[in-house]
Amino acid sequence: MLCVCIVELGVDVHKFYPRMNVIYILWLRQLKRYTRSKARMIGSLGQPLLFLLALGFGFGPIYEQAGGGDYFQFIAPGIISMGILFTAVFSGIEMIWDRQFGFLKETLVAAVSRTQIMFGRTLGGATVAFIQGLAVLVLAVLFGFRPQSLALLPVAFAAMFLTALLFTAFGTAIASRMEDMQAFPLIMNFVMMPLFFLSGSLFPLQGLPAVMTDIAAINPLSYGVDALRATLVNGSYFGLGIDFLVLSIMTACMIVLGSRLFSKIQL
Amino acid sequence: MSSIIDVKNLTRRFGEFTAVDNLSFSVEKGEIFAFLGPNGAGKTTTIKMLTTLLKPTSGEIRLDGHDPIHEQNEVRKSFGIIFQDPSLDDELTAYENMEFHGVLYGVEKTVRRARIEEFLKVVELWDRKNDLVKHFSGGMKRRLEIARGLLHHPKILFLDEPTIGLDPQTRNHIWSYVQALNKKEGITVFLTTHYMEEADRMADRVAVIDHGKLIAIGTSAEFKEKTKTSTLEDAFIALTGNTIRAEEVNAQDAMRMHRRAWGGRS
């Protein structure tokens, strides 16, 4: 339903002008590929759901005894971020399939700047990751998660979309330097997993050894998680202003880096 | 007549292997130019360099007055290409693939819609326009790819073995369309093919390359005269010899595999 709305909304943009058109069609393509692959939509909810339920309910009593409050409330924003992180990076890396199935050539010879192409598909991938994050949020609510205020939801959505954009651009940057999927497990285990586990998505950053908080402080995902926690359950570590500042700067840098690497692709 | 493609001392190496070796030629505006050579001769590598997909190791290229290395966007505006290997999005329908291409090339909406219908009918895929491409047979994909390549009328049209795997009816259809496009719109056509009779019938001039080097250029008639043969196919074999080029292909493939394995930093 939501996708339909977005697609409908897009039709107006369509009339805008050629540059918008190109970004729009690339965005639309990502969305169509996503909505057509029901298995992928449902499959990628499995992992966040498992983390949410197993950890959320499993560690709940201990966390409460230790005086931390409701662990399920605490972990939900972290798992939403996780859903976004994985879908976003994967959407970016998906470009490798385009390279292998030849479709990338079709876009690379078009008389459109590569920055636009990169931006269009990144926007599309980010939208997909954002929808995935929303789906995790809805699941969390079904299992008892309660956002503190509805008024802050739009701010939470903004943080989710920025996180999605940041990591899709990151995935695209990686994919620009890869020719096949062979290095994917490497990225999964040495980049995505550490990003997720060392972001404070599963545990509070307060009172941790300095090494852990330092690592969290240089991990961009931490700020996404923190912004969500600030808006959804009121418990910020860095402060919402810092979160948005860091997220915006990182996203901008990653888009610039991604387009530069993307522009250099040779086939 | 003035030339629209100018290539001077073009060379491309992949590590130790020289795929294109000091190649020079030019193509006249409005001409149908056939670029022939055995497998692994360097045809596709040359086309990739002409179409901004690959940077030359050395040499100069001018496409419609622009340089594909430094003026990529200007060059990309001047040509259209039908690739040798597939370049469709399998997860989209035939119509969506066409639409995507049209938007990407800035073909105005009413023209785009009209041409999509026209071309999908030419390649007899109009009935299947809403089917996902992944359900298409190889031949259908090929036809769709050709229809898509013709959608925006470029100044130069590159056709890299466009008719491979097609039946004679479809081949005829497509070539007469390309010929008409060439006559009517003055589009320059740069084609490669292994069907010598196609090159003979279509091309104003023919170039033959082998091992990355240009070995002959001229009209089909000149070729036959020079080699004292009666068909272009015989002339081609007289020029390039009888050896089957399996080894060279493997060497190049191995080279490419090697590049891929090391992340394409060349």
What's the short version?
The complex is a heterodimer of chains A (267) and B (266). With 267 residues, chain A is an all-alpha fold.
Please outline the helices and strands.
The complex is a heterodimer of chains A (267) and B (266).
Chain A: H1 2-14, H2 18-36, H3 38-58, H4 60-65, H5 71-93, H6 95-101, H7 103-108, H8 114-142, H9 153-176, H10 184-197, H11 210-218, H12 220-232, H13 240-263
Helix pairs in contact in A: 1-2, 2-8, 3-5, 3-8, 5-8, 5-9, 5-12, 8-9, 8-13, 9-12, 9-13, 12-13
Chain B: E1 3-14, E2 17-28, E3 32-36, H1 43-50, E4 58-63, H2 72-78, E5 79-82, H3 94-104, H4 109-122, H5 138-150, E6 156-160, H6 168-185, E7 188-192, H7 196-202, E8 205-210, E9 213-218, H8 220-227, H9 232-240, H10 246-261
Parallel strand pairs in B: 3-7, 3-8, 5-6, 6-7
Antiparallel strand pairs in B: 1-2, 1-4, 8-9
What this model shows, in words?
The complex is a heterodimer of chains A (267) and B (266). With 267 residues, chain A is an all-alpha fold. Helices cover 78% and strands 0% of the residues of chain A. Chain A has one domain (40-263). Chain A is built from 13 helices and no strands. The model of chain A is unreliable at 1-16 (pLDDT under 50). Chain B has 266 residues and is α/β, with parallel strands linked by helices. Chain B contains ten helices and nine strands. In chain B, strand 1 and strand 2 form a beta hairpin. The longest helix of chain B is centred in the middle third of the chain and has 18 residues, at 168-185. The chains are: A mainly alpha (267), B alpha/beta (266). The A-B interface holds A 18, 21-22, 24-25, 29, 32-33, 36-37, 98, 101-113, 177-180, 266-267 and B 48, 51-55, 73, 76-77, 79, 81, 83, 85-92, 96, 99-101, 103-106, 132, 259-260, 263-264.
